[in-house]
User: Which sequence fits this backbone?
């Protein structure tokens, strides 16, 4: 049975009861000596248990035993422990009995008292709750002592010894320090008991401190945490927290620390010499280092820096009197007097310096030169003194005067050349609406009529009219109401600076948060109008802005108005499908309907003075559409000139296409030696079309400087996606009336790529790069990003023509995607995991030291080894010869498709990987071609033609970056990607070498993916990458997040490995 203390209390013979219970059985206890060592409050399962510790001294032998008795809140004994041998064998002993008796004798003095206490508890149960829970207020005394003592380590030196004592209790007070840890825990938790002595046990639920003592105890416990010796390391902080409390210092009762200079000071005059005498008696210090806190005549003071400096100077120089000569009186009254004025006694002998009495303050406000000027006057008795006056006949209260001026400074006033002015309009309006009223509650206010006439205008009426005249020029005209257009630039500058108000020349204050005004500012910014154009309020702008303005008119700006000619121009632009071509029906019959539409779209843009992006999906015949567009332009103007810039690998492909569809067009491929190219350009009038490469254009930049082409076309326009690249800058320097870009992937990774292409075809259309970056800095696809992208899409869509094969060519065979997952061999796994850990560590260091931007820059090269290990570890490690599951799988698939009569394209990012595959194919006597960056352009065309014509060659190995574009390989109907690339568009371009017009069979696309590795993570990333392109170019809606850049979370995901072993 468990033993309950209440049961013990009900027995008159406690000792006898103890030995009749299962707690103690027949042991002798009378000779034991028991000392109470302390107790600890424990929490278990939300219940309070008190552990009492006793030390028992056995007289039979010199041995001490530790006894622990655990008592629950209901007085039930939860557990007992003793370290004697008997307890270990029987779970009971005489030491526990002796400790229990000691518990009663010491804690409750007698059993009778204990019975009384229990009875009282029972009676209290029936008292109403509010009466039963009244807490008792504890007494608290804080005693601080600062005594100067000799420093034995330094001869003839002293120091201030600092000590602290804090006592608490009811009738009798006990020192807190020995119990501070237990007390702090109970006090802060609001429950628990701490035994201080026979007459006092602190109970957090029953005792409280008054507000004064609570501040002291809180500060004491706070700084006790830092250091047990508060007064050694935290004197000032501690005193600052208890400055408003009552405590003892050097046996003086301190009723709060006073913030004033206490030394009694007498000013006397002897002839023309003044003497300032200080009473330094009864002065005690808290520190030798400074005089921030001092004790003077039984009170404690906190001194300012100036007061400390004064006291320090007096003590350091052992002075009690300062002599003031006649020429230093002004210096004294403007400086030191303000420090001692509250305690100074001026002798009758001093007849020319008087202390100020009550001061009246008057503030005067006027409007001068478009700013507010304030005058501050102080009335000393009958004397009126300006703040900046040098009147030295009256002893002025400099501190008070400075305080008044500071009240003005808080509202934005500044002091310049002895004037107090407010020259910040935003602050001026705030002062007029709020500050003036507040100051009027403190001081007398006077204002001039001009000041009273200041008017704040909250609303404006503004419109902007855009029109296209008969001269086909886009014009604008701003209607500004009562605002002078000459002030617009300044107004806009203030809006951009986030100002709220602007003062017009007529004195009115304009509210810059007015919606119409902000719209006009934003519109002028988007149109990038110059200051001169803004001031004029009307003028002409680039015509391609018309479509942009039309999109803004409907969804952003209410102030935009357009005339009938403008509206007709917009309507006609969008009806390009109705445009009539003069090419004969025989010439057009080779084109499909969507290709004729494409030719009309190019032609219409050219005739209206615009450029554009032909962004048809790979395989839909962008080249032939351009050739027919040029044929149409040559019908209109036989002297029409065009420059076409293409990747090196496509130069002869374009020549071949011209030979098929534009034989009569006079053209030349600008290749060969530099002098040969220069000669061609010198004789440019002989040709209608020149085709050159990006690389050669860069070399020949100087040759093109003075040439103006009617049309310029760049193929695979993603080559200029990097705006900072040298080739991009060269391409944008070429002069041409109309510019077109051809690309199946106008956006691969970032919308900045799109900006760069538009900067080529229509500079300024998407604003400057800096503004574009700021406006379209999109990380996560949220509601705001959706709106931004929708707005951008509306702006660019008129100038992008994008068709997909599935939409325009229903007879094109299906494309089947097959992802085959392959496990790594055991040896591969070991190498992969080891390299993965290295990459993780390096990436973590890069992110920590240089940030996520640097990590994005380096991640491709850091992950290269991992990707290569997934293919075949021997690419990385020369001594590896354990094989590769992926290569074996590739060979098996290849053999199977060849046996079934298929031709295969195999793509990889790594030439070394293709070399390994080629060796394996050659050993298996499988004929193949291999295309990488080293193959000349002419040889590529021959190789492609031979592959399509020769049924003996079944496999074409192609480097992704070398042969991913511009090749027609429709004889193959199986595409295998040996490894995955980050950008799905690059892979799609490669796949479309086979899946394009001319393909008669279903194309199967196979991805070989090593399970759980970086390759699987890349596939996930590819799926995310598609979203941004679809949003802006294809217009499809998908509920996915945009991933324009890798986040730290993405990087961590890429570097994870799910090993299922």
Assistant:
């Amino acid at each position: 049975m468990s033993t309950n203390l209440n049961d013990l209390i009900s027995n008159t013979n406690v000792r006898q009861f103890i030995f009749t219970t299962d707690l103690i059985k027949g042991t002798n206890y009378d000779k034991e000596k028991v000392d109470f060592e302390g107790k600890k409050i424990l929490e278990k399962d939300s219940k309070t248990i008190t552990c009492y510790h006793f030390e028992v001294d056995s007289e039979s032998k010199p041995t001490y035993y530790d006894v622990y008795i655990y008592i629950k809140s209901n007085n039930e004994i939860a557990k007992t422990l003793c370290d004697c041998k008997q307890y270990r064998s029987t779970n009971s002993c005489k030491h526990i009995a002796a400790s229990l008796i000691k518990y009663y004798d010491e804690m409750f003095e007698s059993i009778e008292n204990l019975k009384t206490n229990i009875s009282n508890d029972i009676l209290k149960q029936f008292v109403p709750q509010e009466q039963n829970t009244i807490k008792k207020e504890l007494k608290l005394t804080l005693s601080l002592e600062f005594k100067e003592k000799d420093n034995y380590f330094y001869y003839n030196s002293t120091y201030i010894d600092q000590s602290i004592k804090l006592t608490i209790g009811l009738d009798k007070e006990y020192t807190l320090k020995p119990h501070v840890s237990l007390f702090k825990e109970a006090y802060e938790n609001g429950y628990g008991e701490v035994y201080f002595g026979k007459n006092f046990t602190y109970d957090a639920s029953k005792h409280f401190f008054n507000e004064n003592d609570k501040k002291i105890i809180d500060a004491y416990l706070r700084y006790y945490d830092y250091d047990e010796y508060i007064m050694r390391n935290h004197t000032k902080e501690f005193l600052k927290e208890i400055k408003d409390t009552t405590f003892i210092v050097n046996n003086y009762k301190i009723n709060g620390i006073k913030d004033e200079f206490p030394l009694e000071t007498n000013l006397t005059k002897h002839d023309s010499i003044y003497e300032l005498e200080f009473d330094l008696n009864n002065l005690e210090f808290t520190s030798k280092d400074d005089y921030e806190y001092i004790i003077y005549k039984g009170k404690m003071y906190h001194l300012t820096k100036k007061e400390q400096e004064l006291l320090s100077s007096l003590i350091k120089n052992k002075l009690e009197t300062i002599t003031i000569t006649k020429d230093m009186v002004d210096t004294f009254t403007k400086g030191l007097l303000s420090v001692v004025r509250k305690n100074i006694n001026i002798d009758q002998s001093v007849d020319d310096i008087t202390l100020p009495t009550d001061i009246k303050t008057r503030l005067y406000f006027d409007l001068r030169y478009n700013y507010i000027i304030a005058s501050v006057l102080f009335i000393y008795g009958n004397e009126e003194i300006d703040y900046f006056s040098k009147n030295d006949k009256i002893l002025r209260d400099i501190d008070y005067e400075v305080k008044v001026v500071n009240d003005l400074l808080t509202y934005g006033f500044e002091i310049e050349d002895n004037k107090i002015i407010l020259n910040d309009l935003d602050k001026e309006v705030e002062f007029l609406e709020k500050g003036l009223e507040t100051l009027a509650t403190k001081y007398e206010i006077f204002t001039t009529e001009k000041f009273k006439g200041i008017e704040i205008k909250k609303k404006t009426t503004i419109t902007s009219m855009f029109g296209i005249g008969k001269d086909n020029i886009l014009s604008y005209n701003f209607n500004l109401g009562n605002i002078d257009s000459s002030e617009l630039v300044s107004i806009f500058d203030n809006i951009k600076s986030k100002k709220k108000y602007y003062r017009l020349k007529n004195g009115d204050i304009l509210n810059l948060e007015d919606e119409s005004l902000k719209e006009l500012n934003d519109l002028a910014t988007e149109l990038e109008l110059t200051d001169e154009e803004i001031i004029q309020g009307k003028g002409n702008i680039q015509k391609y802005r018309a479509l942009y303005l039309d999109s803004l008119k409907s969804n952003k700006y209410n102030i935009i108005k357009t005339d009938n000619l403008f509206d007709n121009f917009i309507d006609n632009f969008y009806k390009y499908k109705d445009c009539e071509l003069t090419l004969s029906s025989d010439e057009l019959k080779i084109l499909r309907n969507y290709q004729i539409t494409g030719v009309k779209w190019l032609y219409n843009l050219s005739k209206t003075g615009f450029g554009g992006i032909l962004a048809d999906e790979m395989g839909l015949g962008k080249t032939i559409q351009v050739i027919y567009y040029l044929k149409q332009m040559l019908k209109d103007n036989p002297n029409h000139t065009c420059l076409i810039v293409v990747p090196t690998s496509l130069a002869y492909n374009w020549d071949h296409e011209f030979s098929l569809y534009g034989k009569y067009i006079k053209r030349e491929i600008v290749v060969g030696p530099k002098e040969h190219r220069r000669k061609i350009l010198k004789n440019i009038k002989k040709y209608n079309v020149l085709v050159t490469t990006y690389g050669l254009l860069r070399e020949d930049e100087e040759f093109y400087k003075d040439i103006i082409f009617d049309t310029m076309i760049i193929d695979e326009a993603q080559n200029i996606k990097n705006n900072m690249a040298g080739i991009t800058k060269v391409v944008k320097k070429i002069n041409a009336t109309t510019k077109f870009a051809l690309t199946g992937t106008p956006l691969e990774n970032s919308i900045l790529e799109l900006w760069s292409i538009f900067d080529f075809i229509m500079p300024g259309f998407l604003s400057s790069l800096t503004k574009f970056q700021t406006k379209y800095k999109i990380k996560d696809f949220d509601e705001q990003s959706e709106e931004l992208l929708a707005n951008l899409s509306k702006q660019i869509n008129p100038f992008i023509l994008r068709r997909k094969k599935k939409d325009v060519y229903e007879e094109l065979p299906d494309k089947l995607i097959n992802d085959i997952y392959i496990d790594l061999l055991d040896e591969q796994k070991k190498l992969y995991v080891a390299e993965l850990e290295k990459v993780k560590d390096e990436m973590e260091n890069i992110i920590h030291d240089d940030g996520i931007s640097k990590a994005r820059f380096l991640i491709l090269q850091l992950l290269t080894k991992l990707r290569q290990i997934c293919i075949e570890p021997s690419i990385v490690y020369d001594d590896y010869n354990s094989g590769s599951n992926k290569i074996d799988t590739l060979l098996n698939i290849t053999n199977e498709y060849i046996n079934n009569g298929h031709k295969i394209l195999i793509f990889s990012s790594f030439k070394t990987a293709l070399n390994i595959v080629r060796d394996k194919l050659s050993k298996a006597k499988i004929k193949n071609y291999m295309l990488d960056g080293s193959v000349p352009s002419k040889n590529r065309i021959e190789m492609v033609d031979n592959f399509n014509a020769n049924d003996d060659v079944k496999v074409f190995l192609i480097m992704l970056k070398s042969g991913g574009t511009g090749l027609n390989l429709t004889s193959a109907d199986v595409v295998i990607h040996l490894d995955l690339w980050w950008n799905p568009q690059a892979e799609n371009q490669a796949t479309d070498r086979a899946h394009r017009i001319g393909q008669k069979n279903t194309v199967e696309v196979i991805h070989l993916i090593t399970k759980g590795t970086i390759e699987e993570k890349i596939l996930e990333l590819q799926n995310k990458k598609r979203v941004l392109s679809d949003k802006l170019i294809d217009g499809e809606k998908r509920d996915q997040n945009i991933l324009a850049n890798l986040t730290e979370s993405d990087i961590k995901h890429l570097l994870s490995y799910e090993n299922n072993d």
Observations:
- The longest strand covers residues 33-44.
- Residues 136-255 form one domain.
